[in-house]
Design goal:
- This protein has helices at residues 16-25, 36-39, 52-61, 65-73, 83-88, 184-196, and strands at residues 6-10, 29-33, 44-47, 78-81, 89-92, 105-110, 121-125, 135-139, 144-148, 153-158, 161-167, 170-173.
- With 197 residues, it is of the alpha/beta class.
- The strands form three sheets. A seven-stranded mixed sheet has the order 2-1-3-4-12-11-10. It has a three-stranded mixed sheet with strand order 5-6-9. A two-stranded antiparallel sheet has the order 7-8.
- A hairpin with a 2-residue loop joins β10 (153-158) and β11.
- It is globular.
- It starts with 5 loop residues before the first strand and ends with a helix.
Length: 197
């Protein structure tokens, strides 16, 4: 049995290609996932950035929402970035009409908390569990975490706000690590997948 985990990237919307490249560089076999039968074939899943309301509606439309919830509840490792973080939250502070989440992390998130598109920025973020200094994070209409429950561990903050959380096999960041060429967040996730494979 190969030690190389198969990790999907939810390919309904968002920066799928960049995540596939980052995962491949972190020694995973990466593939896009759009349908429940593709989800069934992966060891872990990245939920990319994009527009969280649109992604939620597309997941329902493509018949992916319930299979996603089932796999996450069953312990499949999952990593959400930006909009992906919102989809992994148990609660959204200001959801759009009809917006649903997959859940998996006991946290409350605020959409677009860091401001609009033109207020996007890059910042060095010290992440607990990542060696070699801070990771470079790209924040694009990024959410932040308002609060976490007892089961969730805060692993990074920026500007006094929670920007990275881990709970069991679930990981989430407000920022986009896939846009920087620094693939240590993806390597951390690949290790999480390998640990349960």
């Amino acid at each position: 049995m190969s030690d190389t985990p198969v990790i999907g990237v939810l390919a309904l919307q968002g920066d799928v290609r960049e995540h596939l490249i980052a995962l491949a560089s972190a020694d995973a076999l990466a593939r896009p996932v759009r349908r429940p039968e593709e989800l069934a074939e992966v060891d872990g899943l990245v939920v990319p950035g994009g527009e969280s309301t649109t992604m939620s509606k597309l997941a329902v439309l493509f018949g992916m929402m319930e299979p996603l919830r089932e796999r996450v509840r069953a312990g499949m490792p999952v990593y959400g970035t930006c909009a992906g973080m919102i989809l992994l939250a148990e609660k959204i502070l200001d959801p759009r009409s009809g917006q649903e989440t997959v859940g998996g992390i006991d946290m409350i998130v605020r959409r677009n908390a860091f401001g609009r598109q033109n207020e996007s920025f890059e910042a060095a973020v010290a992440v607990s569990g990542i060696e070699g200094g801070p990771v470079e994070g790209v924040f694009i209409r990024a959410p932040w975490v308002e609060s976490v429950g007892a089961g969730a561990e805060v692993i990074a903050e920026h500007g006094g706000h929670i920007v990275a959380v881990r709970q069991g096999n679930a990981l989430a960041t407000s920022f986009h690590p896939e846009l920087t060429g620094d693939h240590r967040m993806h390597a951390l996730f690949v290790d999480m997948v390998r640990a349960v494979k």
